[in-house]
Amino acid sequence: MIIGVDIGTSLTKAVVFDKAGMSVASACTTSEVHHLPGGLVEQDLDQVLGTVATVVREVAAKLDGPVTALALTGQGDGLWLRDESGEAVRPAISWLDGRANSLLAQWQAGGVAREVFRRTASGMFPGCAAAIMSFLDTHEPESLDRAAVAGYCVDAVLQRLTGEITVDASDASLPFLDPATRRYDEDAIAAVGLSHRRNLFAEPAAPKTVFRLDERGAGLLGLPVGLPVTAGPFDLPASAIGAGVRRPGDGILTAGTTLACQVLTDSAEFDPEGEPAGMFLCTQEEGQFLRAMPAMVGTAGIDWMCRLFGIEVEEIGSLLDTSEPGAGGVRALPFLSASGERAPFVDASARAQFSGLSLESERGDIVRALCESIAYAARQCFEAAGLTGTLYACGGGVRSLEWTRIFADVLGRPIVIPGDPGVGARGAVIVAADALGEPVDRELWAESARVVEVRPENVGFYEQGYADYQASLAAARGLWRL
Hints:
- This protein has a seven-stranded mixed beta sheet, with helices on both faces.
- The protein has two domains: 2-237, Nucleotidyltransferase, domain 5 (2-Layer Sandwich), CATH 3.30.420; 295-417 and 453-477, Nucleotidyltransferase, domain 5 (2-Layer Sandwich), CATH 3.30.420.40.
- The protein has 17 helices and 22 strands.
- It has helices spanning 45-62, 101-110, 112-120, 129-139, 141-146, 153-162, 169-172, 186-191, 215-221, 235-243, 299-309, 316-320, 363-385, 401-411, 423-435, 442-446, 456-477; strands at 2-7, 11-17, 23-30, 34-36, 40-43, 69-74, 80-82, 92-93, 149-151, 177-178, 183-184, 211-212, 228-231, 251-255, 259-265, 279-282, 289-295, 331-333, 353-355, 391-394, 415-417, 450-452.
- The chain is of the alpha+beta class.
- It is globular, with a radius of gyration of 21 Å.
């Protein structure tokens, strides 16, 4: 009776799983995401906390027995500033935020981004804590002055439920944690000019740490004081755990708001002279890491296209079926985010484009071109991350069988889809069960998965398509401007 809670950017979901890893009770509700002029994207901590209370109370009411623990995961990056009691000192700044676009460009040109990458194996982007904090330090220092902690979504919720100020090592990995030692790299903090704000960084909790609901948290959720609570990892590594990634070389594709491509590795070694992008995330297991390439080109682009064409997202699959591989000659670059791209390269000025359009182009061709381009971006991410083993997938994008097949064809490998879609909450529950000394049967939890196979007749076509995508991307990068 562990309730897993996944606090996403726009949706919070609570799930309870049976012994086979299938959901037996669930609830979800939406969070408010405020898109403001100038590329600003913010959220209200109290509103997000309210979504957690709503789904937890709803799920708890459906259960026959008592809740034994609460397992939290959720969105990463961004900046959630709080005071000592956990109250927000300003609206939370989302990982989608673009106010630090120009600052990040300056760091790239001046070598700051490269220096931080060399020390931590994580690239910076406009929506990461370092860029946002540095921007606020210049333009809104009073917010940092009022704060006791500069953290993330999951630890912000945890503080309000338990009173504890801490952070999971996966969240702290970007961009200041040395993944090998799980300690902050002071020189990386100094490189971005934040040494004088060092007191705002909470120390990472040890793996398998268990917290307890305090009176305030218990009252909010309607659960007993002292109930065990775990917090983390954040949604990307939680999804890897929940999907079944266990062996070095295995990877997971998350086709959600973020197109997250992750590969498990047992080595903290990396090329310090490589592209300063992506993340090197600590996991719940000492000596294991996730090389993550969370691109900004996920399902948000599909949502944009649905609004543009006046269609429902459920129609994407049928529209894909109306267009052949190659989309009738239409090609796309999928960089629709206002804050550009963050993996496998970082460029705040990255922008989308469509080419090859004619009067004969149909909606299905444009939809397929965008979906194919996102699959090409996934391939580029996995090449950077070092995928060699089994590939798992989750997220709203893989609900479309045809789009999942496009991913398989472009990546040239079969894709394993977990039987239950709530893999973020699933991963959080697995972590909680381990921490409580009652681990789940992971082999049993994996039995419900299905496999989407590669269509051999399409592999050669998409090989050429990927080469064309890379050429178009290289040409476009020389023209982007903030």
